Amino acid sequence: MKLYFTPFACSLATRIAIEEAELDAEFVLVPSGRILPDGRPFAVISPMEYVPAMENSGGMVLSEGTAVLTYIADLAAEGVLAPAPYTLERYQMMRWLNFIATEIHKGIFSPLMTRKSGEAAREWALGMMPKRFELLSRQLDGQDYLVGSFSVADAYLLAVLNWCEHASVPIADWPVLLGWRARMRQRPSVARAMAAEMPLLQAA
What we know:
204 residues, alpha+beta, Glutaredoxin, Glutathione S-transferase Yfyf (Class Pi), Chain A, domain 2, four-stranded mixed β-sheet
């Protein structure tokens, strides 16, 4: 299985998941020019040219972060990255994956992390933040994970909250989230994934 990534982008969540489940994968760095090391344009793998994307040994190609994370969760041993299928907890995990993707990643951070955004777009994103961060804070207050045990939803949220300082998001205003992020960074799979990508981020 090949996982296509950019250092400390949302694809970090897929590396965390791979580490947590102890799965075998080849990580392929997507260059800024979007031409892969084998000469193919990255758009062949990911039509929107977004990471993460994956390609398995049978030739199956999958893009969109939540789909890739769910696929990895299903490759892992049951309970390692997701609750059991067809349970309420499984659907709650899917709910949080969708919430993080739409309300946090795209809704808040995307406008704040692109030079193409004007001041009005940035103000709009920051105005959206309190309600969404308060919801996350209530969910995580007094518990370690979004749903029961560690899941790919936690990996995704950690990857996104890592952007707070870069995006000038005052995470310290939400101490529950700040504390949760600090604890998650100490998790062995998270620490290994971040350590693997940090030199690549610094060299970019």
